[in-house]
Amino acid sequence: MSVALRILDDGAWLSVNDQRRVSVSELWRLHAPEFCDCSLVDFIAEGFTEVSADGRDVAVTTYGKCIACGESGVPGKIPVGYIREGEYRNYDREHVVLEPVETRPTTNQQ
Ligand SMILES: [Zn+2]
């Protein structure tokens, strides 16, 4: 079963199977030490440029900024949810620390 992933409205939304599931302006806590000097980045998403699914996560390439120090840019591909049995599920993004897929350990088993 395939899942259609799309970025809509100039990067304001991630759509999954034609439903708007993730919007910008969410506040995320990121473990992204290369993004800024804060121990955890208080990241506000300002736009999505790309979406990818790697078999484990659905990740969006996101630009935005750290509201603590003001650093802005693209921390990487941020996992926002996953696909299980053909259905998209959101991660609990307001309560977990997200980590860009490029920098997290690859042998993490879960
Ligand atoms: Zn910061």
Which properties best describe this structure?
53% strand, mainly beta, globular, binds zinc ion
Task: Provide a descriptive summary of the structure in words.
It is a single chain. This protein is mainly β and 110 residues long. The chain has one domain. Helices cover 0% and strands 53% of the residues. The chain is built from no helices and nine strands. The chain has strands spanning 5-8, 13-16, 19-23, 27-30, 41-53, 58-66, 72-84, 87-90, 97-98. The strands form two sheets. Strands 8-7-6-5-4-9 form a six-stranded mixed beta sheet, with no helix packed on it. Strand 5 (41-53) and strand 6 form a beta hairpin. The mean pLDDT is 92. Zinc ion is lined by residues 36, 38, 41, 66, 68-69, 71. This is DUF8134 domain-containing protein. InterPro entries: DUF8134. Residues 1-102 form the DUF8134 domain.
Question: What layout of secondary structure does this protein have?
Answer:
Layout: E1 5-8, E2 13-16, E3 19-23, E4 27-30, E5 41-53, E6 58-66, E7 72-84, E8 87-90, E9 97-98
Parallel strand pairs: 4-9
Antiparallel strand pairs: 1-2, 2-3, 4-5, 5-6, 6-7, 7-8
The structure holds zinc ion (ZN).
Q: How far apart are the first and last residues' alpha carbons, in Å? A: 23 Å
Number of helices: 0
Low-confidence stretches: none
Mean pLDDT: 92
Largest sheet data: 6 strands, mixed
Task: Give, in spatial order, the strands making up the sheet with the most strands.
Answer: 8-7-6-5-4-9
Bound molecules: zinc ion
| Secondary structure tally: strands | 9
SSE arrangement, N to C: EEEEEEEEE
